[in-house]
Amino acid sequence: MSMRKKTLLFVVPVNWAPLWETQIQAADPDLIIKVQGRDEYTPTDVGYALSFRPPPGLFKTLPNLKAVFSLGAGVDGFLLDTDYPRHVPLVRFVNQWLTMEMAQYTVLHTLMHHRQQRMFDALQKARQWRQGVPQRKTTDTRVGILGLGEIGQMAGERLRDLGFPVAGWSRTKKNVPGIESFAGDAELKAFLARTDILTCLLPLTPATQGILDAEAFAAMPVGAAVINAARGGHLVERDLVAALDSNHLSGATLDVFETEPLPESSPLWTHPKVTVTPHVAGRTDPKEAAQFVIDGMEKMERGEPLENTVDLSRGY
Ligand SMILES: NC(=O)c1ccc[n+]([C@@H]2O[C@H](COP(=O)([O-])OP(=O)(O)OC[C@H]3O[C@@H](n4cnc5c(N)ncnc54)[C@H](OP(=O)(O)O)[C@@H]3O)[C@@H](O)[C@H]2O)c1
Prior knowledge:
single chain, 316 residues, seven-stranded parallel β-sheet, binds NADP nicotinamide-adenine-dinucleotide phosphate
């Protein structure tokens, strides 16, 4: 390992920085950490950067940048930087605990729709003891996962283990035991047509932007429910409200939105069929993230290949 001191530039909102800084500094006391917007730094000193939504054009001003680490599993914030130096590897945060939390969120909300929990909440409020509510059988409730990657695969496997017929949609065909694989644009409609409870776990790219729109909802069976835990840009909120109001869809759970924080004026806050959470489906644990950055930098210094690098032309 090189004995020269490394400089890591944090490109995150200044008030976020201390949380990550403390953890990373504890894991590598020799590392020089600079926070963009707070500390002075010499661009030629910066060897590494850590960010989530970098200001476009910043990375191209750092001539000795060796790698950039994403604080999130999704890297759509980086794709907005059309000047990103394409020879610098961009490493996304893939972490078992984050993946697990995302799978939990998917299972929680799939079950909530399947078991009609919102209706039982309303019955409780009205002090009504009603046992005769029809319940669809698990084996008749077809679950679908849009994006069968790190997170989608684990979510699908857990739901499969609970007895649901599960299918996933991805760019390339998958061979996951007990999960039916649909791939590519040509198979999207067939996938949606067999899906009663859908969770979106896709990366946000030009190809997946607005994928959850009126056309997609129309392709789904009457009474279907939609969960979006990926990115707000996947969903056309206006089309979702229309599909819920026409009773084509029975419910939705949304963790991510076209505008975040969700504006107070949004009809989604009070829609009787919508559950809203504030982009908390999966969180990046600072200690895990610190280890991820330290490991990545060490690998780079040893000349070993980095894992989970983003294919910038593909967008994920
Ligand atoms: N709400 C939150 O708190 C939160 C937290 C973490 C992550 N996320 C979101 O979750 C997303 C997924 O993360 P991940 O780690 O599972 O990503 P991943 O491992 O890269 O998986 C992405 C999956 O989407 C598929 N895909 C991509 N583009 C496609 C296209 N055009 N058509 C069909 N399938 C396509 C990929 O297909 P192939 O396998 O064929 O390549 C892959 O199966 C992230 O990008 C992020 O936006 C949200």
